[in-house]
Amino acid sequence: MKTTDIPIYKQEKVILVNDSSFDYDIHSLIKAFFPDEEVKVVLEEGHNQKEQVFLTIIFQTEQILFYKDSNEIAQTNLGNEDLRADIKNKLKASLYQLLSEITKRKLPWGNLTGIRPTKIPMQYLEQNMEDKKILELMKEQYFISDEKAELSLEIAKHEKKLLEKIDVKNGYSLYIGIPFCPTTCLYCSFTSYPIRAFKDKINPYLLALKREMEVVSAAMKEKTLDTVYIGGGTPTTLEADEFEQLFQSLFTYFDMTTVKEFTVEAGRADSITREKLETLKKWGVDRISINPQTMKEETLKLIGRQHSVSQVKEAFALARQIGFANINMDIILGLPEETVDDVSYTMDEIKKLGPDSLTIHTLAIKRASKMNQWMEEHGRLETSATDLAMEIATKAAREMNMEPYYLYRQKNMSGNLENTGYATKGNSGIYNILIMEEKQTIVALGAGSISKVIYSDGRIERKDNVKDVDLYLNRLDEMLERKRELLK
Ligand code: SF4
After folding, report:
1. Which of 234, 302, 335 to mutate to test the pocket of ligand 1 (most atoms within 8 A of CB)?
2. Architecture in CATH for domain 1-105
């Protein structure tokens, strides 16, 4: 089957501006149209005359002018708009139409470049707007395709229904990051350290988490703990006795009786054992993730997962046997050298297992990943992240009686698509919705984690812990102080 080629950055698009206020938005939109090119937005005065200019954007008090090859090709009237958000919306609408004309292409998500597109229909639903009107607005204002507008509205409605059952204002969620993995995957851009080299850091790390828990539980004692999510990395790189230690601390400092969802991302099959799963079950973990990413053996090797397809199947069967009734699986579309036939095969194998939820990711190539280096060595990335692959994966999810319940986008996603979580009835990941819709405070513990406090007026304040494990351990007092400050 035919696949789409994504060449590595060989060309660049230079955009000249007279005001740098909207550089980020211009960059994101141009990049969405030209994902395989380097995009530079430069101020006129800093421009190197030898560089060829793709587009010039001039901001004036009442209008924005667009030039190509010294010819004015479009203008946007700003009228009396002086709010930054309104100017930004007009700029993005005009720029999108212009790029569509130039490339003769439309993007599935129109001019939306942010990571949370479902926030838009959610806002309209909260204003009691009718579905028809919401869909119209999404298409007219943001140029979103019919299919994506309908998908995001369906998800927003699902999320809203679920969020109504939770007292988001008086509750909070807890994230605990375990930043260790058996090996590093080719596409990884997360905080992850190879467990073998960090074995002697585990105990100090668990003690550091305990100290963070002490501070957080004191600061949040008036609030109700709604969900707990242990992610990574790969949390199941911890041994069973280390999980015991972690859970002892958790249950000492927090009232876990109010928790509606307790997730551990088991993640990689090569880290899962009966003893570990039994320990999770004993402590009340009710949602786990076993992530194959693909069911093609050769791809697993190529992306450095170092586990086999049969290990995934065995881990899944073991988890079911131990009694886990809510198991999520993650797959990635667009992995190197995969075709849409491979995606069909992966979906057939997953259907045989029958997970309770499935997250369909499309590969996002991050600068920090080894993937970038791989692409430099191989020149091109054959990717299956096409509309057809997405269609195959979502059809399979629907055939497993799943509905889409959360969605997010990332920068540099293959095929300009999205990541969508599907779940069978009653198995939507509540934490995933909370983090995407930014409706509830999430306090995050561990190296590289980011806490987010949501105020009643909708304001959001973030504080992160340093990424490096050694720095995190050495500067723990400073991290604790930051947390006290944030949560006071
Ligand atoms: S399992 Fe996840 S966190 Fe670990 S290396 Fe792979 S992508 Fe990164």
Report:
1. 234
2. 3-Layer(aba) Sandwich (3.40)
